Amino acid sequence: MNKKGLILVLATAIISGFSIFINKYSVSVINPYVFTFLKNALVALALCSIFLAIKERVALKKLTKKQWSVLGLIGLVGGSVPFLLFFKGLSLTSAAQGSFIHKTMFVYVAILAAMFLREKISKEFLIGALLLILGNLFLLKKLPVSFSKGDLMVLAATFLWAIENVISKYALRDLDGKIVAWGRMFFGSIFILGYLGFSGGLAPIVSLSIVQIGWTAITAGLLFGYVLTWYSGLKYVPVSVATAILMFGSSVTTMLSLASGASVSLKEIAAGVSIMAGLAFIISLKYLSGKVSGTLQKGT
Description:
single chain, mainly alpha, 14 helices, 79% helix, transmembrane helix
């Protein structure tokens, strides 16, 4: 595995933790569908500006019809439908539980990656994954014995994102991370715009308040950082490992919640230890095994 890729994916996890925490407040002051469209559209425009300034615009011209189709599919499965489900669901459930459900994505990704990308699920990965899940369960105030409508919407979005990440990993074999990020946000914004137009949901856009515009701009900035670091890192890291690292974001969200006024309990401390142990188990062993393999190959 590539060290740079690991750092980028870890940065994505930290950004994700902040985003979940802030998005909980955002969807309480603005229509979640309008919020999703504006945020994604702003990120798509920002990525378009990058292509106007650097060499990626040449790469766009060289894309084949198949690659354009894959980018469109990524926009549909990853950049539109799940966003609508996720932010609507987040407005109906707690930030901590929404974050926990989202971070279970690596389970579905690992299964799909093993089936379609032939990524191996090692014993080390399973042990680390168990520690990550255990740690995130500790962070919940109570075990999720039942699911609300909001939880189910977040779960559906999470499964769609799992599918999208496997497709994106396939696309990244030939494409740069910035191009895949652009395809997700650009085509995703178009699909969301179509949905809002069809459902008559565009009217609230013209009556946004300064507060709503501010929240949208803040979260769009976080999303911009998220997609750039994620797809750039995913190119060099197995998708099952990368999505497992994202679970660290759940800890970030909970720590932010604690910092906003709650006290730290022994349960939170145990959760942090479990999550860090899980990450160390997955990242260190994978990274070290790659180093040893590379050294042996050079020696021969």
